[in-house]
Design goal:
This protein is an alpha/beta fold and 430 residues long. The protein is built from 16 helices and 16 strands. It folds into 3 domains: 154 residues, NAD(P)-binding Rossmann-like Domain (Rossmann fold), CATH 3.40.50; 161 residues, Dihydrodipicolinate Reductase, domain 2 (2-Layer Sandwich), CATH 3.30.360; 77 residues, ACT domain (Alpha-Beta Plaits, 2-Layer Sandwich). Strands 3-2-1-4-5-6 form a 6-stranded parallel beta sheet, sandwiched between helices. Bound molecules: NADP nicotinamide-adenine-dinucleotide phosphate. The site of NADP nicotinamide-adenine-dinucleotide phosphate (NAP) has 26 residues, from α1.
């Protein structure tokens, strides 16, 4: 038996067009495998007369009234793919208040107002799903919910901003930051205002959502204090690559007992890891857990049809719940109360870049009780350093008028107790 579900959509841009395309192309399969006919009843846009990448199905109403869609008594399920914060929040609240399940791809909104919206959805016995909000086409949120249901995640590390990853890959291949950004904009991978992507805020929003699913832990932007990629040089990316690392804007959260140490920053990822091979606009999320061990999920982090696929998978789950009358269970049921700390505050190894003399570095390392290994002319790898040791090194070099760029080496962090045990007094060999 086939059940018809009336769907309303807000937005008909990159993702919205992909939804229309996939809905049409997959209609038969959806009916065959799910017993569902998804009827796109209405779509709201900002500019009614703007040219569109897709033709709407016959019978679908195009409107510039969000209100008309989210309050339409015939519509059972609303897809929000217009972006924005306040407008989208108002639209989702109204849709939920009118008893409609909602699917959104809006990471900015879900990272900042997800808790309130989820609570409202539950009170209204509606579903609120947002798979596409993290890593676009990679089904990572439902995987964490369903496939890690009995497992305990101990770490996640994600390359989850395609724009930043494209720029860093291009810089490693020889482009300057400005050339790489311009190339990303020409290819449609970067917006005219790329601030959120290159400044790390977009990655931060996604890590805030990932953390809820992986650890049950809410994070704030203040706790993450994101660092972007704008200060990096192409030379640093290239020297790191020659020495065996890929520079990546990495979102990390790692559990140590009841602590969750987090970071959004550019780091040096060892080329021996599969994550370092996630290049260009691709995304990758590495998950470490007690039962499965290490897994890596890679794929397109954005794009019209890939993102639409994640949206439509949510739509199908929500539609099935409507049919079974079982709506209202929160997408994420994982809740914990961990102490949030910063990975930056823990002892770890660094790749450092400096034009300081070898002699000066040797002296600083001997006095600071750590070791250095020279990889290329200006690139050295340190042994495990405390933040105090790193600060002191920067001060020592600054006293000589030399600058220091330090990139944390991913996955080299040790907890304070381990650091004390493993940091031996060393003598420098460069
Ligand atoms: N693009 C991706 O690959 C991707 C991946 C993952 C998640 N997302 C998320 O998906 C959402 C949509 O992204 P997108 O790239 O598809 O955006 P987009 O191409 O800019 O499209 C936005 C759509 O929303 C409509 N819209 C904007 N403000 C509106 C308003 N006040 N009232 C009615 N309609 C309005 C626009 O109407 P007009 O066309 O008439 O201007 C447009 O059709 C965002 O939250 C984004 O973060 C996108």
């Amino acid at each position: 038996m086939t059940t018809t579900i009336a769907v309303g959509m807000l937005g008909l841009g990159t993702v919205g067009s992909g939804v229309v395309m996939r809905l049409t192309q997959a209609a038969r399969k959806i009916e065959q495998t799910q017993g569902l006919r998804l009827r796109l009843a209405a779509v709201a846009v900002h500019h009614l007369n703007a040219p569109r990448a897709v033709t709407l199905p016959i019978g679908t109403r195009l409107t510039d009234s969000i209100e008309a869609v989210v309050t339409d008594p015939k519509i059972q399920l609303v897809i929000e793919v217009m972006g924005t914060l306040k407008t989208a929040e108002r639209a989702i609240v109204t849709a939920l208040q009118h008893g409609k399940s909602v699917i959104t791809a809006n990471k900015d909104l879900m990272a900042t107002a997800g808790e309130q919206l989820t609570a409202l959805a539950q009170r209204q016995h509606c579903d609120l799903f947002y798979e596409a909000s993290v890593a676009g086409g990679i089904p990572i949120l439902r995987t964490l919910t369903d496939s890690y249901a009995t497992d305990q995640v101990t770490a996640v590390a994600g390359i989850i901003n395609g724009t930043a990853n494209y720029i860093l890959s291009a810089m490693t291949a020889g482009k300057t930051y400005s050339q790489a950004l311009a190339a990303a904009q020409r290819a449609g991978y970067a917006e005219a205002d790329p601030t959120n992507d290159v400044g790390g805020l977009d990655t931060t929003y996604k890590l805030m959502i990932l953390s809820q699913f992986a650890f049950g832990q809410q994070l704030t932007i203040d706790q993450l204090a994101p660092q972007g990629i704008t200060q990096l040089t192409a030379e640093a990316c290239q020297q790191a690559a020659q020495a065996g690392w890929q520079v990546k804007l990495l979102a990390q959260a790692q559990r140590f007992g009841d602590q969750l140490a987090c970071r959004v920053a550019p780091v040096a990822v060892p080329q021996t890891t599969a994550l370092s091979q996630v290049k260009g606009v691709q995304n990758g999320v590495a998950v470490t857990s007690q039962a499965i061990g290490d897994s890596l999920y890679t794929g397109p982090g954005a794009g019209s049809t890939a993102t639409a696929n994640s949206v439509l998978n949510d739509v199908i789950v929500a539609a099935q719940q409507l049919v079974r009358q079982t709506c209202g269970r929160a997408f994420n049921q994982n809740h914990a109360d961990l102490t949030v700390t910063r990975l930056a505050d823990l002892s770890q190894r660094y790749l450092i870049f400096t034009d300081s003399s070898v002699l000066k570095l040797q002296r600083a390392a001997n006095e600071g009780d750590f070791s250095l290994q020279r990889h290329t002319a200006d690139c050295y790898e340190t042994s495990v350093l405390t933040t105090a040791q790193l600060r002191q090194l920067a001060v020592d070099l600054a006293s000589d008028g030399r600058e220091l760029t330090a990139l944390p080496i991913a996955f080299s962090t040790v907890t304070t107790t381990t650091a004390i045990k493993t940091t031996q007094p060393v003598h420098v060999a460069i």
